[in-house]
Amino acid sequence: MERVWDNGDIYKSVYEGLYCTGCEEYKDEKDLLEGLVCPSHLKPCSDRKEENYFFALSKYQQKLEAFLEDNPDFVLPQERRNEVLGWVKSGLRDFSVSRANNPWGIPVPRDESQTIYVWFDALLGYVSALLEDADTPDLDTALAKGWPADVHIIGKDILRFHAVYWPAMLMSAGVPLPKRVIGHGFLTKDGMKMGKSLGNTLDPVALVNTYGADAVRYYFLKAVDFGRDGDFSEQRFVEIVNADLANSLGNLLNRSLNLLKKNCGGVLPISAADLGRDEAYAEEMQLRRVSASATENAFTSYADLDFMSACNEVMRISNIANMYIDRVAPWKKFKSDDMVEVREAERCIVSVLEGSRIVAAGLSPVVPEVSMKIYEALGFAADYASGLDWEKEMRWGKLPAGIVLGKPKPVFPRLELAVREAVAVP
Fold first, then answer.
1. What is a single molecular function from GO for this protein (predicted)?
2. Does residue 31 share a domain with residue 169?
3. pTM for the whole thing?
């Protein structure tokens, strides 16, 4: 507040307008329903007139517009950016940043009869949250702890405050802006808006307790396009998670390890680095090529916060590996008297296990527990999958020859559809 004040952007004036107590903000009549009803709270707004301190938002009209034009990825997804740019171009008005005679709150520094309004002081919490208990409680210390933020994630319903007001406030205070602001969408349940009156509100804690954090995280990042509206169906949730984590990935790993234990004593007969180069094994080479392209695409998708595409790219490796092992049928070739066929079966198993390892690395930000179990099953230390160096781990060739793998066990048991009341708020 002091920095903004010293910059000449705080002044005292009288404001009169339509006020929504639920939103705690003044509304334009054009944004209200018939009868001056707030569309969010479905209650009529009331006339209010009071003397407050104002922030000179209009002063930053051109600067904000130029910044948004020059930084097209500052607000994402694209439709949210278009909304923000539209708000700015339509003209910015100064807004009240204090309330008179409020019994609680942070006093205005130079007028203790007024307290700082929530949409001014609360936004500064994003910076002050960087401080630890032993730190000096001042702005410079907080900024030095890790500002600006790489990504600022908020709901689309409060986008105006975080993508217009907040950047202007930071500009006024001479503080760097966050690198990106993501306005995420709303969630419906079974195609319907959630609400306690409908009895269909989703309890995230109950959902995690019922199905596990990895499963919940995977569904919402893989099946809901990040930044856009999405829907939760418990049936679809179970189907998607089972299809990918239990069937495509978990079953692939388990049957490969069982074949290795049964036919090779659980010992890798060849290193992964020696595979995927011989044209005589075309499908083996294809798995290695798909792995390389999928990991490259996944890198890009993660950086763009396109988690759906990242998950799909990584799972592409698992899907190709499943097709590979089905076509080669190593369980048959291991029974052959022809050592060429036995060697092909060995190469297939090691290639598939290496592909599974890369999938585990690629999905580690989304399903860290599953990734850890896969790495353990492949002979790595229990904590190996935490803090992976992606650039190294997602390259082909990590599994060494001679490593002894333990007894196979499921890394992700199939989910069973729970009683619906278990994940709904009563």
1. methionine-tRNA ligase activity
2. yes
3. 0.83
